[in-house]
């Protein structure tokens, strides 16, 4: 469908419009009474979300690429069907570089807007051992709500995969950020060669490269940002893993699509089912992961 056809079918005057975004990639522009958001069909990626009386919630790199075959650096990449590196394949799965199909847009009674996208068929999908469908509903309103539903289309085989909503948050200054909700949780420390450790701190502070996969954790996480005077609650359901990532100085410099100083302005707190928490879905069944981002002013 070209942009004109998409506009005709999916626009909701005053609430949802379709336009060419960066790199001329098709993008939904959502404007509700509380917030605005940009959602690309490329990767089904929510690139920006901002409440009207607040700074941006999501970090989007100024160096991000907006090109076919490349992931957008920032917002909420949808990581599926594998997380991290994979032999002979791109990192973090193919879903983030596919152009998702727009299935529906709708207005909620409360003034919110919902956009539903579907992962398209592709050679990579066809190669996956068990056929599956992925549908992603994004609700923009007072909060940003993300629901990823995976369905096992096989009648005989189990479906096994990893998924992660790789959320990049914008922060005032990384040194003023504390992350609560993970004390006592076991994690893989990807910076220390994937050693298994247990979080002993009440709050996590970031002063060097951090790349941790927290496991068997279903609880909410709170990001407190003393500089922006904002608390972000990452509320999740159907997710057993939380990943915390900041590339710090050297990695930031090494990434072509990330500014050298941008590590100071972001942190990723990702909700997913990865590693030993990977999803196993019985034949014909489905599983939904929901993430809701709720912000509050703090003093
Ligand atoms: C995080 C991983 O989720 O994503 C990190 O834990 C990785 O190891 C980061 O570096 C970014 O990945 P990518 O593929 O988008 O550069």
Question: What does this entry look like structurally?
Answer:
This protein has helices at 3-10, 123-127, 248-254, and strands spanning 16-20, 26-31, 35-40, 45-51, 78-79, 101-107, 113-118, 132-140, 144-152, 159-161, 163-165, 168-170, 177-180, 186-189, 195-198, 203-204, 210-214, 221-225, 230-237, 241-246, 266-273, 279-281, 286-297. The protein has a 9-stranded antiparallel β-sheet, with no helix packed on it. Strands 5, 11, 12, 14, 15, 17, 20 and 21 form an 8-stranded antiparallel β-sheet that branches. The N and C termini lie far apart (48 Å). With 299 residues, the protein is mostly beta strands. It has a single domain, classed as Beta-galactosidase, Chain A, domain 5 (Distorted Sandwich), CATH 2.70.98.10. The site of 6-O-phosphono-beta-D-glucopyranose has 9 residues, from strand 20.
